[in-house]
Prior knowledge:
- This protein is α/β, with parallel strands linked by helices.
- Helices cover 41% and strands 18% of the residues.
- It has 20 helices and 20 strands.
- Strands 1, 2, 3, 4, 5, 6, 7 and 8 form an eight-stranded mixed beta sheet that branches.
- Helix 4 (117-133) packs parallel to helix 5 (162-173) and helix 17 packs across helix 18 (483-501).
- The two termini are 50 Å apart.
Amino acid sequence: MINFVFMNIKFNKNEDFNKLLISDLHKRFAKVKLGGGKERIKKHVAKGKMTARQRVDYLLDSKAKSIEIGAFAGDNMYKEHGGCASGGVVVKIGYVKGKQCIVVANDATVKAGAWFPITGKKNLRAQEISIENKIPIIYLVDSAGVYLPMQDEIFADKEHFGRIFRNNAIMSSLGISQISAVMGSCVAGGAYLPIMSDESIIVDKTASIFLAGSYLVKAAIGENIDNETLGGATTHCEISGVTDHKAKNDKDALDKIKRIVDKIGDFDKAGFNKVKSEAPKENEDEIFGILPKERNTPYDMLEIIKRLVDKSEFDQYKQGYGQTILTGYARIDGWAVGIVANQRKLVKTKKGEMQFGGVIYNDSADKATRFIANCNQKKIPLVFLQDVTGFMVGSKSEHSGIIKDGAKMVNAVSNSVVPKFTIIIGNSYGAGNYAMCGKAYDPRLIVAWPSAELAVMSGKSAAKVLLQIETASLKKRGEKITTDKEAELYDQIKSRYDEQISPYYSAARIWTDAVINPLDTRTWISMGIEAANHAPIEKQFNMGVLQV
């Protein structure tokens, strides 16, 4: 009885803490949705234009689900330049006339839609999703072009602004539908994007396309001309032939896109297995009570899985072996998936050895490698649930060859040809992040719960290491380190490090696609697999050379 009461109190404390994290997520997202702020939105609407979010929402089927990519891009970045809310661009995967598409809309309330470095990165991520999954992409253009004070970080490199147009050409050659609507400014190099799309629409009077505006034309060649005559809708639809359709206003342009998408033919399918969706039997809301407040507290990952999968059914693979990683088959929203998840509770092997939860040991790495290969063999998408502190260290582990067993797992993840989806639930530290399909390993989508932490090591461990380095440096300079001084240094270092391990820090830099409510996890995975089903697997699974 006492134990039950204790567990109940613990559950309630976890629940309160995690629901506060969700509340914080909602507050942050509400701020992000305002883009450049209420005043700039007011000025934008006064021109007879819809906001970027209004455009996207009007275009997407209203009763269908959608997910937003990179909502927190640029969060707390570029403060000296006034910030760049959501990277100055809204990206959503949703449905247009029942067809799954990805939509990219410049937000002209954020620095007139100018491209910051993170804007470029976010646009490239949207194109990457379109290319990997072969889903149509729609661009809603309203941008002043490159943000000049930061041109050196956005213009010249391989993964900078120019890559967008290279991708336009590649995507066209791959048969991926690209549709553009110019709904405001479209200048300089950016003018190539709509013209390299399959079809382009321009809004009369409020939109323009030109390589150089009237002021620059006057300065360069002495010609006097207004912007509308230079590059307005009538010019490009009736004189130059640059654009394909003229629209009366924003809604008319978006309606034209809907009619174009409506006529796109069916796609070749990858053929992932799907049956009728069924909700988990276990209460999904209980996730908040199961997930501990402290990141180092053990818990049973199996209980989380039961609240994510259809009918709470999870068929474990090698259940009694390599227990610090859970592997098995399940369904999410009807789709068959293979799940690789870090078990966070303390486990005991049949040899009588205790193993720490969240740590990858030789046996668990070996098991995961084989399971990943099995899923590739069976054409089953992989879902990685991360709460990992890394690989086991120490002489016993090293002598047992943990490095080669870890390398096998990394090899399997790297060479996997089925689509992979990564959910960072808690810890995502060091090489554990890599083996559990971190961003560098091409997950189709990667998202974090508000409880996530991404770093080389935990805040406490890193702060201790950095403190040792700092105190040694100060002592060399002849400074005396008191206990109080040491405590002050530790707090400073840990505070700085903790900021960097926040899931919002990662999302701001697009190391993850989103920070999500755990209750939205099923939707993200389901829509991700549906998108992946547009792209038949073309490459044979081959793990390459393994150290055995």
